[in-house]
Each structure stands twice: as C-alpha cells, then as structure tokens.
Write a structure and sequence with these properties.
By secondary structure, the chain is mostly beta strands. The protein folds into 2 domains: about 80 residues, Thrombin, subunit H, CATH 2.40.10.220; about 70 residues, Thrombin, subunit H, CATH 2.40.10. It contains 1 helix and 12 strands. Strands 1, 2, 3, 4, 5, 6, 7, 8, 9, 10, 11 and 12 form a 12-stranded antiparallel beta sheet that branches. Strand 5 and strand 6 form a beta hairpin. The chain starts with 12 loop residues before the first strand and ends with a strand. About 30% of the residues are buried. About 5% of the residues have low confidence.
Length: about 190
C-alpha cells in the first residue's frame, strides 16, 4: 500500500477557473500530491453533477490557484461530496507551478520530519537521497555521496514514493554532511 502524503492545514483560499468562470474555495488541507477544498460559492453549485457541468465533465483537467501560499497548476478531481450543506472536493495534482514563491513564514512553510527516498539529477549524474523533512515547497535531503551543487542551481527531482518528479532550485547546501535543501519550481504528478 502506498504511503499517504503528509497533510498541511493552511487556512488559505483560492479559486478554480473554468473558462471565464471562477469558483472560490477554502483549502481544508494540502499535501505535495493534492488538496482538499470546500467550495465557498454553494449558491452557484450544490451537487456533484452541477460541479461536473461547471468544470466541463468528469476527468477534466482543472486549473486552480491557491492564494497563500501562491501556487497554481492543474489537477484532477478524485472525489466530490456534500457535507453539512457544503461541497467538499478532493483534487490530485497533475502539474504544480511554484515559480511565484511561498513567502508565508520566514522559514517558508511548516515542515514535517518525513523520510522519503528519491533521486536528484545534476551535472549529468543521478544522486540518491533520503529526505530529512518535507514541506509543500521543498525538501531537505541527505545524499549518499558528495554532490557538486551550489545555491541557486537548478536540479531535477524524482520522488517515486510521493509519485512526483520535476525541477527544483538548490536553496542551501552543507557539503560536509552531504545535505542540501531544494525548493520546488515545477512538479509533475504521476
């Protein structure tokens, strides 16, 4: 069984865009693989069928934007349910864009100590790693061997445990401990 990704409760809001229409929501929780939202505009949409019509049918790609942290992308609907008169929607990310940044806290977003295995590609070589901690905008990792990267350098990440790959930027490195911190730029979810 695949391990469930850590969930972060943000107290944020955002919107789904379908053509020229927007549907606003509150973020109930968010992980590196998806988000759970509660629709604000229930006067507009009251059922799963109405939501499917709004986005153009089942299995459509949905464009979303979360306001804080500032992240946008494309997602697929996993589940739609009505709870206490509110529409609750579970979305799985297909593509996430982190280019706009995540200035929420001085140290960015809260982190959770979670070990996941992955690989980092730079200078024409793959480096295996295990994460020390994970947040919605990046990872702190320990690499098996020295990795010649510098702050600001762009790398490729592959994290099969969390079903994503994409590009990231090195935020800091501690070469003596084979550790570095990377900030996601763009992630693709399998």
């Amino acid at each position: 069984m695949k391990k469930r990704s850590e969930r972060f409760v943000l107290g944020s809001s955002g919107c789904i865009k379908a053509g020229a229409k927007e549907l606003f929501f509150n973020v109930k929780n968010m992980s590196t693989t998806g988000l759970l939202i509660e629709v604000k505009d229930n006067y507009q949409i009251n059922s799963e069928n109405e939501f499917d019509t709004f986005v153009g049918g089942k299995n459509c790609d949905i464009n979303f934007h979360v306001f804080n942290p500032d992240v946008s992308g494309v997602a697929k609907v996993v589940d739609v349910a009505l709870a206490k008169g509110r529409l609750i929607i579970s979305l799985k990310f297909s593509v996430i864009n982190f280019e706009d940044g995540f200035m929420v806290f001085k140290r960015r977003l809260p982190r959770k100590e979670t070990q996941v295995q992955g690989q980092l590609y730079c200078h024409n070589q793959w480096y295996s790693f295990i994460s020390d901690d994970i947040s919605l905008n990046g990872l702190s990792v320990k690499i098996d061997v020295p990795c010649p990267v510098s702050e600001g350098e762009r790398v490729t990440l592959e994290v099969p445990t969390l079903s994503f790959w994409g590009s990231a930027r090195v935020k800091w490195s501690a070469p003596e401990d084979f550790r570095l911190g990377v900030e996601y730029i763009n992630l693709i979810h399998n």
